[in-house]
Amino acid sequence: MLVLDSVNGYYGKSHILQDLSLEIKANEIIALLGRNGAGKTTTCRGIMGVLPRIEGRITMSGTDIIGLPPDKVYNHGIAWIPERRRIFANLTVAENLMMGLTEPDQREERFQEVFDLFPRLEERVDQQAGTMSGGEQQMLAIGRALVSHPDLVLVDEPFEGLMPSLVDDVADVLSELSQRDITMLIADQKTDETLELADRAYIIENGHIVHSDDAASIASDLTLQEEYLGVQ
Description:
GO molecular function: ATP binding
Oligomer: single chain
Keywords: Amino-acid transport, ATP-binding, Nucleotide-binding, Transport
Number of helices: 10
InterPro entries: AAA+_ATPase, ABC_transporter-like_ATP-bd, ABC_transporter-like_CS, BCAA_Transport_ATP-bd_LivF, P-loop_NTPase
Protein name: ABC transporter ATP-binding protein
Family: Belongs to the ABC transporter superfamily.
Structural class: alpha/beta
CATH topology of the domain at 1-76 and 185-232: Rossmann fold
């Protein structure tokens, strides 16, 4: 499905992604793990076409998408849930969902699919998004991505800034998506929660992929986690 091959990404003169390669197959949940500043968000930004400069090869279902603007990447079936959710706080739940809808005539059907996943959003459909809890806002961000029926969802730092109880709620939501064969890349530093969801995992450090394996193997290797992820 998605392949990154020897990708290099830059902010100005800073070389952030360095010869980065990874692959996501259909119906897989892939974890991209790393410390703060390791390059997780930059990887997502590179895929979505919002890095100022990027080199290498990124293909989606065999089509080269590197350097395309975000709307064109979106049209190739990739949706992005940015870090800190980035919902529109002054808009209602329904208005936020409309922002992700590419076929307005299918609004009723697509909205109901989201509400079946997240009943709380249906209860708050006319509520301003900024007045909801962090967990509910994350559900809204996920729902906004799903209304377009993407082939792949990039989930960037889904647990960032959430209270422990809300971390569990969001983990449950992502687990539900995984049961529905939705292909995802989850970029986060919450090792336990992310590895529990994932099939395979990549560890990134200083813009390099330094290790990859099935998620269960990385979850059981505490020495590896301590070295690259700071897990004690």
